[in-house]
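So, does this match?
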Amino acid sequence: MRIAITGASGFIGSALTRSLEADGHQVLRLVRREPTGPAEARWRPGGEVDTAALEGVHAVVHLAGAGIGDRRWTEEYKRRIRDSRVEGTATLAAALAGLTDRPAVLVSGSAIGYYGDTGDREADEDSPRGEGFLAEVTAAWEAAARPAADAGIRVVLARTGMVLGRGGGALGQRLLPLFRLGLGGRLGSGRQYMSWISLTDQIAALRFLIDSDLSGPVNLTAPRPVTNAEFTGALGRAVRRPAPWAVPAFALRTVLGGFAEEGVLISQRVIPRRLSEAGFRFVHEELTEALTAELAA
């Protein structure tokens, strides 16, 4: 198949690209800079898209967007988070809708931030939208893909949780080094739930969604969420270091701004009901095995 990907150079996008190309698929990388060859095509959120290059692609995976936890949440950065997702998705969806030879499917990135704070309650795809900045952004982000669906393209909204893998995602460049130095520990009370997925399963799930007949929201999380205290304990054991520390909530709010409340102190107990019912089989259902495998990769 010929598959177009936005965000192909990112943590998830680069892993997806490698996986697809290893199996003989042709990947068209949509880039904002000047393309360097036939495997790349130009696009710009809120601007132009090289629609000629997109004619005849079988599938599109849309992963581009400013990082949620990359910076402190100032009002300016919150606008950047929102605009990069909503404008980018609207631009791409409109371009795909206008093609003569449209793709069969658009897998459009989304997030479990849609559900807001679920506390101890499990949330699946039928759960209502929550409250807060991320819930509002995610709802607008998903709505922006509607022109593609209206044009007859199967649109999947991949509501992704915390992705665990080396070199990016939740472990990233900051969390893992701290734990390896023995400086890790729980955040706030540690009782808040974290819905995670291994990078291996994230890539497999995205490929599953391309080939399936699913549409609409699909949660990309492992079936067994854990509390923050359980997560930090498991990560400490995975790197063979103690994780005795605790970062108080007020300190997190000072350093991270609004991201503290909606990113690290929020409780999200999200389960992948539709993915499981469709027959997807997780490689890593347990956090300990996921961390061990991903850190050894």
User: Anything to note?
Assistant: The chain has a mean pLDDT of 90. The domain at 2-296 is CATH 3.40.50.720 (Rossmann fold).
